[in-house]
Structures
1.
Amino acid sequence: MAQLDDRRIFEGVARLSYRDLRSALEFVHEASSVSCSEPFPQPAVDALAQLVRGEFVGYYEWDLSTRVGPLESVEAPPVAVPTEVADARSAYCFGYPLSILRWSSETRALKVSDFMSLRSLHRTDYYDGVLRPYRIEHQMRIWLDAPPGMSRVFYFSRRATEGDFDERDRSLLELLRPFLVALRERCALPGASEANRCDLTHRENEILGWVARGKTNREIAALLVVSPHTVRKHLEHVFQKLQVHTRTAAVARTFANPD
């Protein structure tokens, strides 16, 4: 399955223009530098909305057992959801082609038009109760890795005037998905103790957080889009500042409970 995913991403990259690839790299650089917030950095969502445009773009985390509303949401722009829309979303969720109940572990970027025509969509209860109030005609979603029973998903919604999403939009999202997964994981890293946070730089704390999660230097380098040599030099500086000699000791000292 991983080989098929890699092949699909590679084929998608081949379809992207130089300008698109440059924009993707600029997004990675910009999103990597923002301060993390729960559940996802707002500036990263705003930047992604500029890369794959839609009237409504957002990130949701859902508990699949309840589906009453998202546990967490970061939107550009924020969207007010009336009670009747929330009730319709819960009642008709499974009948929607991009339902979180069907695709919570999917790695592809999917469009409504992959499954039905616009005319068929207009006949659904989900369209009447959830999409029509916002005049949404086209939607694309891409899911991130999530614990069992959870769904983490980005949605991109457009009205009729913007037209449907195309293969360029799909390829960009699938190319960026591994980075988006890594960025979400970074937001869940444990916080360093206040004293040691002052001693270490933001990047050093970030790298040490990945070490605490069991990542190798090569894996950390791939996540941060730097070289393994750079990661190694950062860790050498960490060891010097903390006066330790091993990765285990550095993690223990940095993330120790002050109580």
2.
Amino acid sequence: MRHLIITRFIHFKKQWFSFFLWLLLPFIATITIIQITSYIQQDTKVPIGLVLEEETNQAMNLYQSIEESPLLRVEKLNKPDALHKLEKHEIDSVFIIKDGYEDAIKNGKRNQLIQSYYSNLSFAYNPVKEMIASLVQQETGRVKAAYFIMDLNKEHSSNLSWTWNEIVETSKIVQQEEDLLRSTFTYANNPTNQATSTFNVWGVWALLSILSTMLLFDWVIKERLKEITVRFPFMKISFPNYLLGNLLIYAVILFLIDVVSFIFIFHFFNGIHLPSIGTLFSFRMMLILGAFLIALCFKKTFNYYSFSFAFTLFLSISSGALFPVEGITSRFPWFEFVNPLNSFLSGNATVLWSFILIIITSIWYGREEFRNA
């Protein structure tokens, strides 16, 4: 094994640039793509100005709800600055939470709570206005429910002593847990009901890992050249064992790089769910064995490279790693079962394909050993 490692590192030394390029491609490209798309998404948010004439609890709750919208970029301004920016078309529109907003909400008033300004270039004013109006309606609905419950307590002389604030806060908890209320922002006829996700981080990483692994395994084709294989009858190690030994070296290197990449990706994007070691190991095993067996089917590296890019493109479209495939899986439920990326993207171990590829590799090894015996 020591001689195998020395031989392989001699090959690495001669092809160090391409080796490290494909080895680090999934990590570097994933970080780059996510950063670029996050910047583009942030830059394409609708800019609005928000003026708070009072900073009461109700006003601040509304401000936070508007600020949490994934399609808005909210600037907290005073009224003169906000109108000045609107005149210069630096923001799309201005919304003013008027003084007395909290008292009006508690008194059940629903009219003239928010004052708005827009220009002839305010392309998103109407959908933003409707979204803010829906948030105000939620608050007034909570208040109405709170007073109704308090009246019931008085009418039936109940021992339950719920305060107005407790009822309102409880309704917020119910909304978050049960999703009873939902505000919808519609822009360009595309409704958005939840926070948008730029990309599936692990979907991007998985596709890039497939491509990089296949390109790294061009060594299988190069090692099977006649001028190399003719030497093995005079060596202590058989050619199949030589290939499997090198396969093990690549497996160890790739798995270590995966662990380091996962730690860095999780560090840069805090809060992203980190797959388990078992999920990572089974997925990497599937990639290594799959790339190895596919490379055995080719004699020319150019054809292998072409197939690698085409295969990765096919998976990026059909696997659901980048684009939703609910329409396909609803019509063909078996597609989700045979999808090679489905288990990994779901956070489960890739058992089916790993098992199939282990059996195929064992059959190949047995046939090659029998042929060389």
